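Replying to the earlier thread about multi-chain prediction with a worked example.

Input:
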Amino acid sequence: MCLGVPGQVTAVWEANGTRFATADFGGVTKEICLAYVPDVVVGDYTIVHVGFALTRLDEASALETLELFRSVGLLDEELGVVRTPTGPTSAAG
Amino acid sequence: MRYLDEFGDPDLARALLDDIHRTVTKPWALMEVCGGQTHTIIRNGIDQLLPEQVTLIHGPGCPVCVTPLEMIDRALEIASRPDVIFCSFGDMLRVPGSGRDLFRVKSDGGDVRIVYSPLDAVRLAQEHPDKQVVFFGIGFETTAPANAMTVTMAQQLGLTNFSLLVSHVLVPPAITALMESPVRRVQAFLAAGHVCTVMGMADYQPLVEKYHVPIVVTGFEPLDVLQGIRQALVQLEEGRAELENAYPRAVSYEGNAVARQVVGEVFETCDRAWRGIGVIPMSGWRLAPEFADFDAELRFDVTGITTEESGLCRSGEVLQGLITPVECAAFGKECTPRAPLGAPMVSSEGACAAYYQFRRLESPAAGGAR
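Result:
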């Protein structure tokens, strides 16, 4: 919850005056809210906490962190992904 | 001795450790505030790589662990109602309330859903206008911007079936409480990096000055933690007490101005009971009066709660850094992650879970954080 995961913004759109994005977290795609990082654009990396981007991060740091989280099994946990034999599924909701 | 390969950059890890060993001449006690940092320390054996004189005390920075029991019981009551969809981060479902947990409510027929983001709960409220959707808004300053935004979104969308059960906690008042405690052991703090990503660093300056205690804003990865420890130890050895940032790639002095503004509008500061620790003055956030319509505590009349903690669990002492998890007689016996007696055994940020995952095969004498 407090770790936050770096993700790369792959698409940005607006709904009800708020900016949202699709972000890629080392292969897992999630919808995130960009309300707190007005200057983040497609291609940027950002640290995401429970669906909200909180700060921009440089690419090298982001990739290192993602690799580390993956290697110790934290990536799925932080993203709420449940692995099943047929592949990853997101938490309900 | 752990293999330094696990640190990502073994050469840098070795250099930092060598520097720490050269620096330290006296015994020092540091507290890592955040449970995420505790997990890194125990997973990578950082405490065992440090000089003998350095003690790492695990802090109370596990949001799931310190959410007060009566708030858990309130959640259990609300989640049991047939008209409610109760949404929560996954970690909360196994946290023991007085006699049961949210998983039990779910298996008894309650509509309890694990969500990744509070935004998912807002979406559920839109999709289920016939249901009351409640989100369990817990956490430190890191999750507050997300939880605050759901309220402003629900307001914009005109949702009358969405509410938050808020139990936010704040780091700086917890540091104050630790420094004011009669059993004050901590000589320097590693502050939680992402809390400062949101709030910035200014709130820590008065603490550094008042208590003459070094505070180093620190990240969560093994090298980040080593760097934070090194900076804190250098300050202690030089007799300095300053606020330093060992995590500049994610933390600025100002923090996230937009997030701070929204959080400041939606929440107001209040006294908060921390599970196992007690009430810490002005250490929490609750919804501001303007947002009372979205307050689950007011929407649902939850009264007559009698809380009851496990008699065996010593999580309060663990959370205050007075004992390490392995010193609790129930550790790994009556209390395991599958059948936890206390919240620190549940959470991915809890100290007991960290020791269970990485240290339970060691004897109590060898398993402590020295």
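The CA atoms of residues 135 and 164 of chain B lie 5 Å apart.

Feel free to reuse this layout for your own posts.
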